[in-house]
């Protein structure tokens, strides 16, 4: 391509400095808990081609019928800004907060993020013992067991859960159910 | 004040309380209770269309020509799905529309009942918001909220889906809230711009050497007051001004600073001014791909001020150096006041040089076409139509295609709300119903749909509506027997293989007009054109005017897709070879 590094006013080809570094952000979205609200949020992401890495939703203020949706998404800074603004445009959305940006502004690496997983492992002999030992090391709780299996409950950052699951794979991993990420800002202040 | 009444009654009462005088609609099983109320009152006039899509576009035309929300009433299932195109169109062009749909009774929802569809599911991505009303006691609140959401902030379409049992049920009605903004729980559009940013914008403008105003449909949506302020600001600053397709008329085409429309089929001077400017003031426009052309070559030296009511328009495709979120009218009022009170002034020497440059571009005469004495050139037809109607009270709608671009290039708009066109979605079949909507709102005006022979057939059935209500709309068909814009793109992109863009077996438009009860004209000689147009204007009936134009004329100038503003294909350079090679490999994938 005959692009020029130093464009003149009359040049047709001009390459803007595009910051297309992909970033992962955690957004907190406060919405009216009304029928279809989750479909609006999800439809926005699929319709506009945004990514959802994780999505968690539950009513958090029952008397006001407010739900809090936590979304982990990836994109360029421009796309993340778009996502925030597009979410904010939905009528039942009260507030959208980019927790990752807030954490950055407070000089923190990340907001507080936790995920819970239920991990079923089946097997016998050494593998079974090894699974139990590692469960202990990861501070996972056994919430169901027979002589053939364990179900572990594990809480932590996404990376910890991922690591636990991959370790359990050769030890007889049967299935996993994950909640997705719940997140809040560090410190005394709320949304 | 609250009263007990049925859901169907509430709909009529709410329309009256919202000041609605006209509803466009089509009855069906799931809205019969509402239709039973409609016939028993005369405060709200119902216009019966021939297809629900027509109702939607008519309501859009009504909205665009009045500044008020358009209201539509259709039934469940196919009634609702036929509305989807019009809703999407209104969404893309920010047209306030309140669409009331009937729904099967609540106990049948989800049962695949007759004429059931998931209306709120289907219309969710093509409305600003929608509601399914499950309890008659929520109906009044939701209807009033619907009008508030449709008309405030960035306007748009909304749908209220009302099951039939809710229409029959009795509940409590209350009138609109005195302060709907405060009453709403979560929706808070920002109308007032940030004062500091507006001051910064004024400073930036005052220091500009090569400024330009780039305005859009947001100015029209903001109301006549905003257009007035825009004119004032242009006069104060002396800056050149261009506009998108949607914004035509906000600044008069006869104004001294007018550059013509910009973008893919905009003028050379408008696009070159945009490309070379150092300060761009974007007012109520959204950097659509038809405007920017190649984004990474868009206005490389410009500092961009972007005024928009919708924060999601900011930095969507083009980075704004100075965003101002707010209603155009409010922001312009502050901007004009600051400009005046700080005695800011554009640099006279720089402005002189800038205008000299612009005049040189203007001299390129990019809209030129070869006149022809035997065949009507489409551009000539629009020019004559303009000359013969410009001193009248006119509203112009269009369909979509070459005729639309020629209308935008050659018909001069002096005031906002006079130009009704489908910009964002590009909906063929928009023009006739939109023209009907404008004529319903302005019975004495001259309402013309500038159409193409292909587009007009997409909603031709609405001729019947026009005849029924005595609406003397004039459909001016530039008939070249092709889907002209499709053919133009096939010439540009696909080696002139004209796959299915030629319309064989077109109807006889004169007979067609007569079959509907209207009047038909056919003209194929340039010399007969003026007389026929005069006759058309004089007819007090719906008219189909079959204007036979040069079949192979193409629409120039043009920024081929994937190219920049300063790489326009000008009419005198657009020979077959240039056309065939205008678009590169990367551009071919673009639309």
UniProtKB/TrEMBL annotation, chain A:
ACT domain: residues covered: 26-101
Catalytic activity: 2 pyruvate + H(+) = (2S)-2-acetolactate + CO2
EC number(s) reported in the record: 2.2.1.6
Keyword Amino-acid biosynthesis attached: yes
PROSITE patterns the UniProt entry points to: ACT
GO-annotated biological processes: isoleucine biosynthetic process; L-valine biosynthetic process
Molecular function via GO: acetolactate synthase activity; acetolactate synthase regulator activity
GO CC annotations on file: cytosol
Known pathway: Amino-acid biosynthesis; L-isoleucine biosynthesis; L-isoleucine from 2-oxobutanoate: step 1/4; Amino-acid biosynthesis; L-valine biosynthesis; L-valine from pyruvate: step 1/4
Similarity comment: family membership: Belongs to the acetolactate synthase small subunit family.
Record-linked PANTHER family: ACETOLACTATE SYNTHASE SMALL SUBUNIT (PTHR30239), ACETOLACTATE SYNTHASE SMALL SUBUNIT 1, CHLOROPLASTIC (PTHR30239:SF0)
Protein name in UniProt: Acetolactate synthase small subunit
Species, as recorded: Roseibium aggregatum
TrEMBL record, chain B:
Cofactor: Mg(2+); thiamine diphosphate
EC number(s) reported in the record: 2.2.1.6
CC per GO annotation: acetolactate synthase complex
A Pfam family recorded for this sequence: TPP_enzyme_N
Residue ranges annotated for the Thiamine pyrophosphate enzyme N-terminal TPP-binding domain, each copy included: 5-121
Protein family: Belongs to the TPP enzyme family.
GO terms for MF: acetolactate synthase activity; flavin adenine dinucleotide binding; magnesium ion binding; thiamine pyrophosphate binding
Gene Ontology biological process terms from the UniProt entry: isoleucine biosynthetic process; L-valine biosynthetic process
PANTHER family: ACETOLACTATE SYNTHASE CATALYTIC SUBUNIT, MITOCHONDRIAL (PTHR18968:SF13), THIAMINE PYROPHOSPHATE ENZYMES (PTHR18968)
InterPro entries noted in UniProt: Acetolactate_synth_lsu, AHAS_TPP, DHS-like_NAD/FAD-binding_dom, THDP-binding, Thiamin_PyroP_enz_cen_dom, Thiamin_PyroP_enz_TPP-bd_dom, TPP_enz, TPP_enzyme_TPP-bd
Span of domain Thiamine pyrophosphate enzyme TPP-binding: 400-547
Co-factor remark: Binds 1 Mg(2+) ion per subunit. Binds 1 thiamine pyrophosphate per subunit.
Signal sequence, renumbered to the chain: none
Protein name as catalogued: Acetolactate synthase
Naturally occurring in which organism (per UniProt): Roseibium aggregatum
UniProt entry tagged with the keyword Chaperone: no
Occurrences of domain Thiamine pyrophosphate enzyme central (ranges): 198-335
Record key words, sorted: Amino-acid biosynthesis, Branched-chain amino acid biosynthesis, Magnesium, Metal-binding, Thiamine pyrophosphate, Transferase
CDD domains hit by this protein: TPP_AHAS, TPP_PYR_POX_like
Catalytic activity field: 2 pyruvate + H(+) = (2S)-2-acetolactate + CO2
Pathway as given in its UniProt record: Amino-acid biosynthesis; L-valine biosynthesis; L-valine from pyruvate: step 1/4; Amino-acid biosynthesis; L-isoleucine biosynthesis; L-isoleucine from 2-oxobutanoate: step 1/4
